[in-house]
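step 3/5: co-fold with ribulose-5-phosphate
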Amino acid sequence: MADTDLSKLMKQEVGKAAADRVQSHSIVGLGTGSTTAYAIQFLGERLQRGELENIQGIPTSFQAEVLSKEYGIPLTTLDAVDHIDIALDGADEVDPNKNLIKGGGAAHTREKVVDSLANQFIVVVDSGKLVDKLGSTFLLPVEVIPMAITPVMKKLAQLGGKPELRMGVKKAGPVVTDQGNFVVDIKFEEIANPGKLEKEINNIPGVLENGLFVNVADVVLVGEIKGDQVNIREF
Ligand code: 5RP
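step 4/5: write tokens
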């Protein structure tokens, strides 16, 4: 099987495993990205089959909102509920302590709000996302309000990173988030203390949120290839 097919299969199976963990009468945080898209699809299919009832979703992005509507998942907002039972979301990197880098889809600000509020946050990834140290394969995304982009990039460089403004694909100019802000991706030689760096970056005036998720994930479901089958591992 080609690598792209294997990656798709891992994402599908782990998305399905996460959707299977949702129970009736739940308020569900709905994450962003290609893996969570499968979780949203399978959740919608369980609802249509009558396996689940009375689900309310809280989307973390415009993408999640559109997909949820497509698959018939009723939506609500944080103003209308007093808790979130479970959140399903992807990640760009996962370390052995279940700390994450997120924001590959520029949705990490809303994702952090929703995922942190959930009583149980389940991360869904394929095995390629597992790393020993955060920052080893993926740049750290930071959402910045546009008027502060220049001073914020200087401060990020002073913290030891190499910041780059994320540019659009099939769109001239920078990526604009669902909140109307820019995203800076930073290369750090090493992220020795993710919790400390998360706070230091968020302390820079003009930064809205960064993609380090420290002590937020409860369960990580990993889709991995074993022989010619996908195995789901939990940690
Ligand atoms: C979006 C995210 C995504 O969850 C992350 O980028 C993983 O996406 P994918 O499942 O497509 O690899 O953080 O902001």
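step 5/5: annotate
The chain has two domains: 3-131+215-234, 140-210.
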